[in-house]
Amino acid sequence: MKVVIIGGGIAGLTLGILLRRKNIDVVVNEKSIGIEGRGHAFLMSADGYSIIKDFFPDANVPLLSKKVNQFSLKKIDEEELIKIQLEGWYCMKRSSLISFFYSLLDSNTLKQGRVFSHFIFENEKAVAAVFENGDIEYGDIFIGADGSNSKVRDTLFGKVNFSNIDVKEIVGISSKSSIANQQAAVFQKYQSKEKGLAFGFIPVSADEVVWFMQYDATFSDGHEDTSPEQLRLFCKEMLKDFPSEVTEILDANNFSKTYVWNTRDFDVLPAFHKNNIALIGDAAHLALPFTSAGTTNAILDANALASLFEQFDDSENIFTSFYNNRSINLASHIEQGRELKRLFLYPKLYSERGYIVPLVSDQEDNCVDELIKPLKVLYFTDPVCSSCWVIQPILRKLKLEYDDYLNIEYHMGGLLPSWLGYDKGVIKNPSDAALHWEDVSKNHSIPLDGDVWFEDPLNSSFPPSIAFKAAQLQNKKKAILFLRRLKEMLFLEKKNITNLEWIENAALGCGLDSSILLKDMKGKAIEHFQEDLRLTEENEITSFPTFLFVDALEKKLTLKGIQSYSKFEEVIQQLIPSAVKKKWSLSGIHLFEKYNNMTTSEFAFLNDISIKSAETIIEELFEKGLIEKIENKNGFIWIHKVKD
User: Fold this and answer.
1) What pLDDT, on a 0 to 100 scale, did the predictor assign at position 445?
2) Are 401 and 581 within 8 A, CB to CB?
3) Residue 65 to residues 11, 180, 188: CA-CA distances in angstroms?
4) 117, 145, 219, 296: which is deepest, by most CB within 10 A?
5) Burial 550-565 (b: 16+ CB within 10 A, else e)
6) What is the tens place of the pLDDT at every residue in 350-391?
């Protein structure tokens, strides 16, 4: 079998390399000679980056790239609208990646200077590709990877209906080392709240940033297309009200290497192939650049298609499966790009909550346990409650074994309004809380450091409680991770979690938008916290943790305080006699991959093993470099080590 690829961009080259690695005869045909300067740099997700890394015999990818850790969206007056941590995104020079790809292909596989003209057909199937220089390449399967203006696509389906060019984008690379170093690892974007105008920049190396100016196409009368000097003047005029660092980036830019991008897309095609000819990358699907999805999708296309050559012997099954595997996700990316364009063009119609992070991703369901399940569990808790920290392993085990039956709702109980007049048993002041925590740590063999009450005592549990309600407004699943992280900061790291700095840090670490969370803490989240306090009072909850189990017939059973796991199982069996414990086989590093971090006692409890056995397993994982540890005076927290 011989595969002929038309187009030597990211998609075509990736596919060529992957097929060669499978010992498939392949020829990549590229119209240009050498490496084009257009394209500058792009963002790539972890999915695409992992495929490229696999091209290397070792783990180090010798590409000029920069890992991007955060996205920040600000108004031009520098008020922050969005701030969110990014996972697995990289900024990379296009020329660097293309050069690397070229180094993996010999002259028999990569043919340059070939501009596609037409196919030669026999019995409705292509047998050869003909190029304008007179070259002819015969083959069995043909892949069009020739970009958004694909001639191969025109041959198969005719002209597509491109969307209107409503937004234009000017792109350049600026040598501004101070900006690159200062903003390392941050994708920074400034956006007008009055009109469709934005400026963004991303570090691509230690001394360069790739930048872009997006603007409503109606703002331009064509002057930006004429010369480097007019392009420079146009950008400076459009961005004159933006922060000074924008001007500095423009001043350090070479406008002779800057270009205008007319952004457009088209609807998902009814198929990506006809007979033995198929399309991949921008030739098959084109999303607006707001999503930063183009390069990653090109690589994912190539990887998905190459893998199907191992499963099927005929092109029809290969191409049909390829379309079925990719078209749904690609359609969602196209729609996300269109939604981002609407938000961009009409900013006055949307508040900051209407913004979407301009990076395509699988949209997480903003819910936990929205499915109808037999038992509703109202869990009344508080971020500073030591008993609620002790109960954490039980919550995790319930999730593993009885998740099919339980909808657990988290409600904040308001344990510590303030120390003024506070009197809860033996605890009347911060020093009492410190001594109590030390007792809890010893009695339950769980790391817990009460010194925070001497060193930096919290004056109330209300701020972190309100922060949790703000997190729930964004994403209920991430809110639970956020609450866990707040507890770790307090109980293990002695951090005062009423401090907004630590609240923001925890939010970013859990994938939440910290800017919106801090805004919601001043408004909507307070209202939701007050609702929790009313619910706590209505149900006469006076201690934490308290679990209120409610079945479909409104029968209620309550568990208060620190209880054994068997007590929880007894309640479940009373209300649902048919409940069956789920068997799970997570162990060792796989359990850390699910829960990210655990104490030694928590690991032992979840695995039903002794502390000594748990210590042995954990120490082996630590020696192998699979987990890290944070030391507490009363124990350790073990953290799954994620490799770049």
Assistant:
1) 87
2) yes
3) 19, 13, 17
4) 145
5) bbeeeeeeebeebeee
6) 655 555 566 655 444 444 445 578 999 999 999 999 999 999
Q: Which helix (H) or strand (E) segment is 422 a member of?
A: none
d(CA 13, CA 29): 9
pTM summary value: 0.78
The residues, ordered by sequence, that sit 6+ positions from 311 with a Cβ below 8 Å of its Cβ are 317, 318, 321
Report helix, strand or coil for 465.
helix
More confident residue, 546 or 65: 546
Which amino acid is present at 79?
E
User: Residue 545, preceding bond cis, omega within 30 degrees?
Assistant: yes
Residue type, 81: L
SS3 content of the chain, % helix, strand, coil (to 5): 40, 25, 35
In angstroms, the CA 247 to CA 238 distance is 11
> How wide is the angle at C-alpha 84 spanned by C-alphas 528 and 497, nearest 5°?
55
- Alpha carbon distance 422, 409 (integer Å): 27
Tens digit of each residue's pLDDT (9 = 90 or more) over 182-212:
555 789 999 998 999 999 999 888 788 899 9
CATH (residue range 589-640): 1.10.10.10
CATH architecture of the domain formed by 167-262: 2-Layer Sandwich (3.30)
Domain 2-63+93-162+267-335: what homologous superfamily? FAD/NAD(P)-binding domain (3.50.50.60)
Bin 201: left if φ > 0, else alpha if -120 < ψ < 50, else beta. Answer: beta
In CATH, the number for domain 375-575 is 3.40.30.10
CB atoms within 10 A of CB 469: 24
The closest of 429, 412, 431 to 420, measured between CA atoms, is: 429
CA distance 620 to 71: 36
Span 104-115, mean pLDDT?
95
Token output for 282: 């921008």
Provide the H-helix boundaries in 183-314. Answer: 228-238, 244-251, 294-311
